[in-house]
Design a protein that fits this description.
α4 (about 170-205) crosses α7 (about 235-250) and α8 (about 295-310) packs across α9. The protein has a domain at about 15-110. It is of the alpha+beta class and about 350 residues long. The radius of gyration is 25 Å and the shape is globular. The protein is built from ten helices and twelve strands.
């Protein structure tokens, strides 16, 4: 109906399939909103990310060349998977998108019909304690430094932002300044994504069981002093990558309750401190005299609690928060009493 209305003749310049897909995406967004899974759908800005989805009736894939509907010539692109021959694939959906920095992408969905093979068993488990000074501290004592991508580029981003603010709205100079600012943000985003993918892939490849905490990231970023550092770390994206990579590789990811006192509990004897300030990075156990690094000790306790939850078979999914909390508290009692957890 929108095509027939006055002022919408430009809709005839593109295929009807991406327009129909946009309506389907809108319907899905409203269904998620009324189900309580998402916020109210918002209108998309023309200056943001643009995307058009083509199904099998609106594109052709011939000998590694992509033909879209209402386009006579094939689209020139750079193939990002050198180990896969583009001439032998059979795509089901193609999504063409443009980022705010002006770069174009073609995302191709392929139905392989086969499940990925699980990785070989390593017999090694690990607990991961996420932080700000160090991105992650493992129960093995390894500390993964926080690259702080946004902090390293903050001065350049602020300079590009000031330059754009001085340009007249609607002018070509402002459009070029906006593109430069978008490219600077894209570099930060790509660097962060590369770091998270490399770190999560290494953890999944080298460990059979990975245990992390269920952090309340949305609540933590309300702290004005730590909001930027927490957002730059990307803890939520890191957990999302671990979830799908462990499922694909045949590994197991255990998420323990956020209220488990991993930092205040001695990993050697199980003694529980009454209080422990955030500024205290090392402490000595009054029960056994063991000197602890705060983050390494927390990672060891996270691993012990995750093994206990894994052994009892409790629900560790994000939807089972209350059950997970009771299971962790019950199964963590032997560790506090000095009895080793299997």
């Amino acid at each position: 109906m929108a095509r027939r209305s006055r002022g919408h003749d430009f809709l005839y310049e593109v295929s009807s399939v991406p327009l129909q897909q946009a309506l389907r995406h809108q319907h899905t967004a409203f269904v998620n909103f009324f189900a309580g899974r998402a916020r109210y759908p918002r209108f998309k800005s023309r200056h943001g990310r643009q995307c058009a989805t083509y199904t099998r009736s609106a594109f052709r894939w011939r000998d590694g060349r992509l033909f879209l509907a209402k386009m006579d010539d094939p689209i020139a692109f750079v193939w990002s998977w050198p180990e896969i021959d583009p001439a032998v694939i059979n795509p089901t959906t193609v999504a063409v998108s443009r980022d705010p920095d002006g770069r174009w992408y073609a995302s191709i969905a392929i139905d392989t019909g086969t499940e990925p093979e699980p990785l070989p068993v390593t017999g090694v488990d690990v607990g991961v304690d996420l932080g700000v000074s160090d991105f992650a501290v493992l129960s093995t004592g390894e500390k993964i430094p926080n690259p702080r991508h946004l902090e390293r580029k903050a001065r350049n981003l602020a300079r590009y932002q000031r330059r754009m603010a001085r340009k007249q709205r609607g002018s070509n100079n402002r459009a070029r300044a906006r593109a430069k600012l978008a490219r600077a943000h894209t570099k930060v985003r790509d660097a962060r994504a590369d770091f998270l993918h490399r770190t999560s892939t290494r953890l999944v490849r080298d460990h059979d069981l990975i245990v992390i905490e269920d952090l309340n990231v949305k609540g933590m970023i309300r702290n004005r002093c730590l909001a930027r550092a927490i957002s730059d770390a990307g803890w939520g994206e890191f957990r999302r990558q671990l979830e799908y990579k462990t499922a694909r590789a045949g590994r197991r990811l255990v998420v323990i309750d956020r209220w488990y006192p991993s930092s205040k509990t001695c990993s050697a004897c199980g003694h529980l401190l009454a209080t422990l300030s955030l500024s205290t990075r090392h402490w000595t156990c009054p029960g056994c005299g063991t000197r602890h690094d705060r983050d390494v000790n927390a990672a060891k306790n996270i691993l012990a609690a995750g093994r206990a939850v894994s052994a009892c078979g409790a629900d560790v999914s994000p939807q089972g928060s209350s059950l997970r909390r009771s299971a962790v508290k019950q199964e963590a009692q032997p560790a506090r009493a000095g009895i080793p957890v299997p």
